[in-house]
Amino acid sequence: MMVEDPAFDYDNKEHKYSTVRKADARIQKYVEHGLQGMNTILNIGAGTGSYELDGKYIISVEPSEKMRLKRLELGRNPALNAKADSLPFDNNSFDATLAVLTIHHWPSLENGLKELVRVSKHKIVILTYDPEKLDLFWNIEYFPEVIRIEQKRYPALLKIQSIIGRVPNITNIKIPIDCTDGFQEAFYARPEEFLVKEVRQSQSAWGFLSNELENKYVEQLREELENGEWERKYGFHRTMQEFDGAYRMLEFDLTSSSNSSVLG
């Protein structure tokens, strides 16, 4: 399956994103570390406002009207209606830009990343998935087309580096067993959550499947949970306090002249 437009339609597709996708305090510490010393921050693809740090001057950009309205319902600051590839800001407007699980939605990755470079003075922090590591998770067996879709949507880390023109510091984000942010890896030890429709609706890759294929995957997992087959194969995940999968934080230092080459 080819994904011609990687953007999930948050305005017209049903989801309860803010209920399922709640910022996890332990993942927030990664963001805090990445933005240490940065005072003015632009948050791109900000959604409902997860991982926006207290004590910082933050401007948020979010193209989805439904997401922007939900921010207001949650008592968070309003977000500007704009897209990553056309930011309404002058050059070097912010100390740093932040992009949390958003770049895989951008129709023009190159234009979006170049805009981040343009408006940032010191740093770019991107949280994303390494598509080459997505098959580490057991859901490759149960939801193979979901993973193939994600592998097409998430850009290779080397591609991100080549566009920005800097070598980032890359951190593996370890997922806690009781992670409150309901992306797929968050449920590595709680497979029953994938049987909940609201959970799947808050993981955008499912929105690219047909209803027939989604139901097939869900019923296969349900059957193997009921007959103990999942437990036999993957039950050890329930005792893993954290999971080191494909989640990555990329920190680009725009001020160091020694950081201008690209990994080969």
Task: Give the topology, please.
Elements: H1 17-20, H2 25-34, E1 40-44, E2 57-61, H3 65-73, E3 94-100, H4 109-119, E4 120-129, H5 139-142, H6 144-153, H7 157-164, E5 169-172, E6 175-176, H8 197-201, H9 211-226, H10 229-234, E7 242-243, E8 247-253
Walk me through this protein's architecture.
The protein has 264 residues and is α/β, with parallel strands linked by helices. The protein has one domain (17-254): Rossmann fold (3-Layer(aba) Sandwich), CATH 3.40.50. Helix content is 31%, strand content 16%. The strands form two sheets. It has a six-stranded mixed beta sheet with strand order 2-1-3-4-8-5. Strand 3 (94-100), helix 4 (109-119) and strand 4 form a beta-alpha-beta unit. The longest helix has 16 residues, at 211-226. The radius of gyration is 18 Å and the shape is globular. The two termini are 29 Å apart.
